[in-house]
Amino acid sequence: MAGMRILIVDDEAPARARLRQMIASQEGFEIAGEASTGAEAIKLVAELKPAVLLLDIQMPGCSGIDVAASLPNPRPQIIFCTAHDQHAVDAFELHAIDYLLKPISRVRLAEALQRVRTLAAAPRSDYDTALDGAVKRQAGSPARFLVKNATHYLVVGEARVLYFSSEDGLTKLIAEGGQYWMDPTLNELELRLDRFRFFRISRAALINLNAVEQVFPLPGGSGEVLLSNGSRLEVSRRRFNDLLQLLEGSVARTDVI
Fold first, then answer.
1. E strands along the chain, which residues?
2. CB–CB of 147/181 below 8 Å?
3. Around Cβ 254, how many Cβ atoms within 10 Å?
């Protein structure tokens, strides 16, 4: 019977070889592939659909943290493997199963993979509850987005984002200084992002509330928003009152734990 598939991501070949060797002795797992950069990892996750990602953090192009933050659901269980301990908080906010410091021992890798086995065997509702709690705990953290830019990827910070739009089934991020295509759908972004900072105003647009400068009511109960770059976007009738309440701060947070 085939084991759970693992994708190894590390820019150093000796580190990948050591992980391969240690995984070989772990029952119930098999290696799906390897990547040496963050961009390659994103591509292989989509193609190979591994169950587990052994992910280095400091790599050329984009970091392992950026890779993890950009993956759409459902995504692999993530175990970070790094020589640096300063990223641990970011890692666990991204729902990492474990955070292993190099040089990684067989015992620590075995412990991390046992956590993967345990979580895989748990009822799906229990797993979703655990992830929901993690999402709520990171609600105050600034969001980052990985976008495509010609032959490489860029990391766009929340402060630069104006809005996201859906065009012909594709998602575009409109930021100060550029427009970029990205993989997650608007539905996925709406679920992932804090609605007190990013709000879905229509089927075709999700805006950064900090980018709103003016709001215009329209006949029939709908409206428009004027963003800081001069863009005017339609707000659906169903969402207009919710938008006004969020902008004036009259909606109380109920998800802080």
1. 4-9, 29-35, 52-55, 77-82, 98-101, 144-149, 152-157, 161-167, 170-175, 178-182, 198-202, 205-208, 212-217, 223-227, 232-235
2. yes
3. 7
Q: What is the pLDDT of residue 201?
A: 97
Residue type, 74: P
Record the tokens describing residue 97, joined without a space: 């199963």
How is residue 62 written in tokens?
């984009």
Using CA atoms, how far residue 95 sits from 78, 113, 134, 217, in Å, is: 8, 15, 6, 40
AA letter at 47: E
Q: Which residue in 215, 178, 218, 176 sits closest to 199, CA to CA?
A: 215
- pLDDT score, position 151: 66
Distance CA 150, CA 159 (A): 23
Which regions of the chain are under pLDDT 70? 1-2, 85-93, 122-143, 150-152, 250-257
Give the pLDDT confidence score for residue 256 in this predicted structure. 38
**What per-residue confidence (pLDDT) applies to 160?**
92
Residue type, 223: G
Dihedral of the CA atoms 138, 144, 146, 150 (nearest 10)?
180
Question: Tokens representing 210?
Answer: 């900090």
